[in-house]
Specification:
Shape: elongated
Structural class: alpha+beta
Strand order of the largest sheet: 9-10-11-12
Distance between the termini: 67 Å
Helix content: 40-55%
Number of domains: 2
Order of helices and strands: HHEHHHHHHEEEEEEEHHHEEEEH
Length: 362
């Protein structure tokens, strides 16, 4: 008796394998897609997913322009029938994962996941978490000191529940990459390649369009200095600086930053962003700061910040001249507990001050 070849083996190849890299690149593009949804293809894929789950095709398809609008649309549905997320996504997902585990074993599954979905997981999860938080914030509005906190918490919980009822479409890319080629998940995969989030019910499906703008930094975090980092067609948007949520008007006022404005910012995280944008060296110069220590390695500066840890920097000068004969100055961020310039420079090399004895500084 011969054993049939595994349909999963090809994706357990090393990361350098060309076919494997193509698969990951394709799903990374799906997760980051900002083109308008292919509505006809998405609806056809949904019918395939319903058929695979043993369900009759939905009779209505409702398209909206963002997850925010989708939550409002789901709330307003009349006679949608029961929610069928379990049949459409949860159970097929679990069955497919069980099949992979049985065929590849725990180590094989771990290898497969690390080589596929794990490549996309962190950035996609951060993005979906931010979208959910943004929807909750938009629907609840600003918190009032005199508001009913219990009622607000209940409302937030209800909104999060509706968001967790969604199939994430393009943002299910990590898991779909891990199960690429699965016939059981073919309908879900096809919807993901053609639409954003969607809510499956017995008689109706609510689809969200994909974003029209998605900007991230080199680490894959939401990031934009000139406006929102994420925008949907209806204007639902998220502003972020290196993954940190910031108010919509925060970035618009960065050109007018001053040391005094930075010092008076009450939010410690926003203050750090302001310092990063303004420039530590410029802040020190315009604040008339004085060094706290200097030695042969450089100059230690300390920036006290209200309700936050001090920012401590070492100013060092490159000992090698540039082609034009000048010497570049660099600023090294070091731990707040740093007491001397040498200690700070040593820390950047993973050494103690006693162990740091460079033959030549570069």
């Amino acid at each position: 008796m011969t054993t049939a070849p595994s349909k999963y083996r090809i994706l357990t190849a090393p990361v350098t394998d060309g076919i494997f890299m193509q698969t990951i690149d394709e799903w990374r593009a799906v997760a980051a897609a900002t083109a308008p949804a292919d509505r006809r293809a998405a609806e056809a894929a949904v019918r395939r997913a319903y058929s695979g789950a043993g369900l009759a095709a939905p009779t209505r398809y409702l398209w909206v322009d963002s997850p925010l609008a989708a939550v409002a649309a789901v709330r307003a549905l009349e006679n949608p029938g029961r929610a069928v997320l379990g049949e459409i996504r949860t159970r097929p997902w679990a069955a497919e994962r069980r099949s992979v585990h049985e065929e590849l074993g725990p180590e094989g599954w771990a290898e497969r996941w690390n080589a596929t979905g794990a490549q996309l997981w962190d950035n996609t999860r951060m993005l979906t978490d931010r979208i959910r938080a943004g929807v909750v914030d938009a629907l609840l509005g600003p918190e009032s000191e005199n508001g009913d906190r219990k009622a607000r918490a209940t409302a937030a919980s209800d909104i999060r529940g509706l968001l967790l009822d969604a199939v994430l479409g393009q943002h299910d890319a990590p898991w779909l990459a891990a199960f690429d080629g699965s016939s059981r998940l073919a309908g879900l995969a096809a919807v993901a390649k053609n639409a954003g989030w969607w809510w499956p019910f017995e008689h109706v499906v609510v689809f969200s369009e994909r974003p029209v703008r998605l900007l991230r930094d080199e680490a894959g975090r939401l990031h934009a200095a000139d406006g929102p980092a994420l925008v949907y067609p209806d204007g639902f948007a998220l502003h972020a600086w290196r993954g940190m949520p910031v108010p919509a008007d925060f970035l618009a006022n960065l050109n007018a930053l001053t040391p005094a404005r930075i010092r008076t910012e009450e939010n410690a995280e926003l203050r750090r962003v302001m310092l990063e944008i303004f420039g530590y060296d410029r802040y020190l110069a315009e604040s008339n700061a004085e060094p706290v220590h200097r030695d042969e390695t450089g100059i230690l500066w300390r920036i006290p910040l209200p309700d936050d840890e001090d920012v401590v920097m070492v100013e060092v000068v490159n000992s090698t001249a540039e082609p034009d004969g000048t010497f570049n100055t660099y600023w090294l961020r070091v731990p707040p507990s740093t007491g001397t310039a040498k200690e700070g420079v040593a820390w950047t090399f993973g050494l103690t001050a006693a162990d740091y004895e460079p033959l030549r500084q570069t």
